[in-house]
Structures are given as C-alpha cells and as structure tokens.
C-alpha cells in the first residue's frame, strides 16, 4: 500500500529565510500593490539595532555580534548606554574571559549585574576598585555568598549612587555547630 507524500510546508521555507538572517517585509507602494523587499540585519539603522540589543543580555549580544564585522564591534565597544550582565551558570575560565573582555571595559555602563558562582564573587571582592567604578549599577544579584564577604561588600556598595536593589539570594552563615545556614533577603 502506498501512502501519499506530504508536500513541504511553507514553515520550512520561512525557517530557511530566518537562517539566512533576512527579514521579509511586505510594503505597500503608491499603486497599493504589494511588493516584497528583503532587508539584511546588517542594513538596519543603529537605533533599531540598539532596540533589539536592549532585549538581550549583553554577554549573549557580545558573543553573537562582537566578531561579526567592524561595525558591530565598534557598536558594542563604543556604546555609552547602560547594559545588563548576567554572569550566572558559567565556568570559571569563561567568567575570567568575560570579566576581562566585558566587565572591566564596561564598568561605567553596567546597570545590573547577576553573579552566582563563588569564584565570581571572590574575584569582585579581590578587586575592590572595580566595585567603586560601577557608577550606573542599579541592581546587584548575588548567589551563594559568605556572610563575611557580604559584609565586606556592603562597605563598597554604599558609595554607589544609583544602587537601589541588592538581592543576596543565598548568604551562608557559619553556625557554632559547623553547619551552614542559608538566608535570603532583598535590600531595596
């Protein structure tokens, strides 16, 4: 018994267009007839690209666009607007790479920072001068920080003028019995 073959749906054609980084736009010309024009992502204005980048985490934007071409490389490095950085769930070597390539050159632009690994918090604590340069920082989220480290960090955070949300998701306290206890507080 032979089964009829299904034809390829237009969904697959649409996916192929997306893979080629093209945006299909339908426009109406003066004769009210529909024409199809293709715009490459690279042809978009800086303002539109910035709006798109605003929806992405800066680390992912950096990974995707920093080596694409000179325009995007300059766009990412010379941009003066605030950025959000989520450094959670990454290895120590990746964090050290991003610390050098993203955090240090952009300390004056960082609006929110999310750190979740003990080595990332330790690196920040050993470079106190970096903390004082986070002049646009509004939100700091910390996972798994020792209580003594948190107290030391608070001393430096007082000098940040725009910091309005400090979220330590897990503060480890060493109790008398040697068992760590965990607390969660939000400082607003």
Structural descriptors:
38% helix; 188 residues; three-stranded mixed beta sheet; alpha/beta; 2 domains
Description:
This is F-box domain-containing protein. There is one protein chain. The protein has two domains: 34 residues, no CATH class; 102 residues, no CATH class. About 14% of the residues have low confidence. It has 188 residues and is of the alpha/beta class.
Short description:
This protein is α/β, with parallel strands linked by helices and 188 residues long. The chain has helices at 10-19, 46-53, 58-65, 70-78, 92-103, 118-126, 128-132, 147-157, and strands at 22-28, 34-40, 83-86, 110-115, 139-142, 145-146, 165-168, 171-174, 180-183.
Sketch the major β-sheet: 4 strands, parallel
**Which parts are unreliable, with pLDDT below 50 for 5 consecutive residues or more?**
5-9, 18-29, 176-184
H/E series, N to C? Answer: HEEHHHEHEHHEEHEEE
User: Mind telling me the C-alpha Rg?
Assistant: 23 Å
Q: Total domains, how many?
A: 2
Determine the mean pLDDT: 76
Termini distance?
70 Å
Estimate percent helicity.
Answer: 25-40%
Based on Cα principal axes, name the global outline: elongated
Strand order of the largest sheet: 3-4-5-7
Task: State the total count of DSSP E strands.
Answer: 9
Which structural category do the helix and sheet elements fall into? alpha/beta
Number of helices: 8
Beta-strand content bin: 15-25%
